[in-house]
Design goal:
Number of strands of chain B: 0
Oligomer: heterodimer
Number of helices of chain B: 13
Keywords (chain A): DNA-binding, Hydrolase, Metal-binding
Distance between the termini of chain A: 15 Å
Largest sheet of chain A: 8 strands, parallel
Strand content of chain B: under 5%
Organism (chain A): Streptomyces tropicalis
Radius of gyration of chain B: 21 Å
Shape of chain A: globular
Order of helices and strands of chain B: HHHHHHHHHHHHH
Helix content of chain B: 55-70%
Largest sheet of chain B: none
Shape of chain B: elongated
CATH topology of chain A: TIM Barrel
Strand content of chain A: 5-15%
CATH architecture of chain A: Alpha-Beta Barrel
Structural class of chain B: mainly alpha
Strand order of the largest sheet of chain A: 1-2-3-4-5-6-7-8
Protein name (chain A): TatD family hydrolase
Family (chain A): Belongs to the metallo-dependent hydrolases superfamily.
Structural class of chain A: alpha/beta
Largest interface: A-B, 20 and 23 residues
GO molecular function, one term (chain A): DNA binding
CATH superfamily of chain A: Metal-dependent hydrolases
Chain lengths: ~290, ~230
Amino acid sequence: MRIFDPHIHMTSRTTDDYEAMHAAGVRALVEPAFWLGQPRTSVGSFLDYFDSLIGWEPFRAAQFGIRHHCTVALNPKEANDPRCAEVLQHLPRYLLKDGVVAVGEIGYDSMTPEEDEAFAAQLQLALTHDLPALVHTPHRDKAAGVERTLAVVKESGLAPERVVVDHLNEVTVRQVVDSGCWMGFSIYPDTKMDERRMVAVLREFGTERILVNSAADWGRSDPLKTRRTGDAMLAAGFTPDDVDTVLWRNPVAFYGQSGKLELDGSGTPGTDATFEGNSVLRGVRAEV
Amino acid sequence: MTPDHLRTALTERMTEEGGRWLAGACASVAAEPEVVRGLFPLVGRRCGRGPLDPAVPHGWTVDDAARALLLTAVPLTGTPLLEEIGELYRSGDAAERRAVLRGLPLLPVGDGALPLVRDALRTNDTRLIAAALGDYATDHLDAESYRQGVLKCVFTGIPLTALPGLPGRADIQLARMMAGFAQERTAAGREVPTDIGPVLALFPDVRVPRHRERADVRSATTDRPSPREA
């Protein structure tokens, strides 16, 4: 099973996770820029984080045979802090970088006027930089948040097939399915979605325009939830080709719209990427 | 490595389209230096990546070479040139930073770009460390920092054959540091990289000490002689 995790915060994970992910079939991932659990207080803190997403983290991932890409944005939570909002001016130069395959995570947290402003401005950045957008939906008042999200996306002029609306569930997927946007699901140990509920959603809505991610971060989460979902799909009677559509071909199609996805056969069985250097491996080459 | 060497090597590794793009980019930069900031990130996509010579580990890549040529096209000197390459380095991703480091010996910057070399040597990214210890560091980096850089290569698994400054810049201090490293590795029952051998061989007075001073941490493997003694 080849797996592309379209949303996972590797900065907060260890090399054990990279190793386990590779063993489970993960060969590529996208790490969206988000907050760090502890709120940032300055623009410099964002820039160091973005630099890590286009420098150190891809290096770390490569040592375990995993292709790392990222998305860059001012996230909705921190859009509410005027000390952070200035980072918007720095985004254009990051959006030019090879590894940056979308603008994200953008969208709503508490649906404030500041979030409105940052969301709209960053949808315009996606348009002018010819990139897709990864849109986070709020955990509180989600249905209203999704509705407002779709309205803002529509108004932006960004084509719906270049937008993924993420963290959906059984209720909110119904709002997004007719919009033409991609539908993202974060599979968590005990919140958001679990793999059995995900299989039920796939039964009802099919595999088209659906992305499944682990969204693993520093909170209680599991970077192998993509694999567990693949296994649950097979157990429920989906074919290996269905699993490949959801866990590989769909994320490749969505982020491929950036024109910057570099997979070099990393998802083809038997042609795993080789990697050089080993400072993360502490003197031992990875066995893959 | 000279710009002409890079051009020749690139003609074999770059598509015609990539070559045309690079020629156009160099001409634009020559006319208007600040456009280099927008062009620099695009080089990998336009000119390709991959090693310039597949036989050389940690060597120049196609995008390194193309970016270095772009840097040589920047019509600035002195402080303005240093400021421009400093900005390209600081705002670059790992590949852009690596290319700036590789390009330094081709640019009239004296030892003014050493802060960039030191920045790269503070990272743990082997691509940056290897590029930082190229011809520019060989010619400009002080002895203490150079030794630390070499040791960092040994620790992070960068083959010392990738460093143009060795064995020329090896000194007795470096040999002592390597002997100490070999002792620790042997005491731990771990392998000692063979590529420190040529440096040690230059200084026969420096012996790899036995580790018996720390008898309390001896293990079953510690009686194995170190490669130096074998």
